[in-house]
């Protein structure tokens, strides 16, 4: 059963805001950093590569947390807890460019090599719990 | 040995920005949310209460991650990984008010009861590793 996002906070998933994605390292320590994302009403998708630490973290521990706050009122926030349910190869890097467009980045000079397209993946995160404030 | 914060990113700890604090729940799942903080050059301090989930998480797993990004350029960020090395009782809630002042909140109408001062604690987090972008 997909979680229900409170309508009062749905904009935080729709606006091109950076979220913080928290994962757990193989040694059990949390790790977090800002990420681009896209929400389709059921899942949050991220562009990533298979050569980076977070990918290795998620191979071992798929559970993750996504948090977003409203830059216009940072006391209003949304946290999703759930898991990465699939990791899809994306060797043309197309999802990187989809997100770059969503976030208003000029991709004119960005080559496939520059974004390590060969190793690009799409992380698909499905929320199981929602917290808001 | 305290970590060295790159001077290029020191402002992210000095400005009154919200950070995201990631902890690990007793079941191993990460949890994260925005928090006020204060940095003194060695430790990050948070106001919290002993009745909340993050407190229980930290009792079991003191390792945590703090990330802050620059709202003026969200691609510039700082992540600190480390651990909560002490949790200090703060039953007058004074550190809540210290942070409220740092963040420009009008505390005129805020009572000790409203902030659950009786259960207030200061979380002291010491970084062991720094990542920047």
Short recap of the structure:
2 copies of one chain form a homodimer. With 133 residues, chain A is of the alpha+beta class.
Question: What would you say this structure looks like, in words?
Answer:
Two copies of one chain form a homodimer. Chain A has 133 residues and is of the alpha+beta class. The first copy, chain A, is globular, with a radius of gyration of 15 Å. The mean pLDDT of chain A is 95. The first copy, chain A, has three helices and seven strands; from the N terminus they run αββββαββαβ. Helix content of chain A is 16%, strand content 44%. Chain A has helices at residues 11-14, 53-60, 94-102; strands at residues 19-24, 30-35, 38-39, 44-49, 63-70, 73-89, 120-132. The longest helix of chain A is centred in the last third of the chain and has 9 residues, at 94-102. In chain A, strands 2-1-5-6-7-4-3 form a seven-stranded antiparallel β-sheet. Chains A and B meet through β1, β2, β5 and β6 of A and β1, β2, β5 and β6 of B.
Segments of chain A where pLDDT lies below 50 for 5+ residues?
A: none
Radius of gyration computed on alpha carbons of chain A: 15 Å
> Strand count, sense and closure of the main sheet of chain A?
7 strands, antiparallel
Report the order of strands and helices of chain A: HEEEEHEEHE
Structural class of chain A: alpha+beta
Indicate the proportion of strand residues of chain A. 35-45%
Q: Which pair of chains has the greatest number of interface residues, and how are they split between the two chains? A: A-B, 26 and 26 residues
Mean pLDDT of chain A: 95
General form of chain A: globular
Amino-to-carboxy terminus distance of chain A: 23 Å
Taking strands numbered 1, 2, ... along the chain, how are they ordered across the largest sheet of chain A? 2-1-5-6-7-4-3
Beta strand count of chain A: 7
Q: State the assembly state of the protein chains.
A: homodimer
Number of helices of chain A: 3
């Amino acid at each position: 059963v997909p979680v229900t996002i409170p309508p009062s906070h749905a904009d935080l998933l729709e606006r091109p805001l950076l979220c913080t994605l928290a994962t757990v390292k193989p040694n059990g320590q949390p790790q977090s950093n800002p990420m681009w994302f896209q929400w389709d009403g059921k899942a949050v998708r991220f562009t990533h590569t298979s050569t980076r630490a977070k990918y290795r973290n998620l191979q071992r521990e798929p559970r993750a947390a996504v948090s977003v706050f409203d830059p216009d009122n940072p006391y209003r926030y949304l946290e999703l807890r759930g898991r990465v349910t699939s990791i899809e190869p994306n060797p043309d890097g197309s999802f990187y460019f989809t997100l770059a467009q969503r976030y208003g980045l000029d991709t004119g000079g960005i080559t496939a090599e520059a974004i390590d397209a060969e190793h690009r993946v799409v992380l698909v995160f499905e929320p199981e719990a929602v917290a808001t404030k």
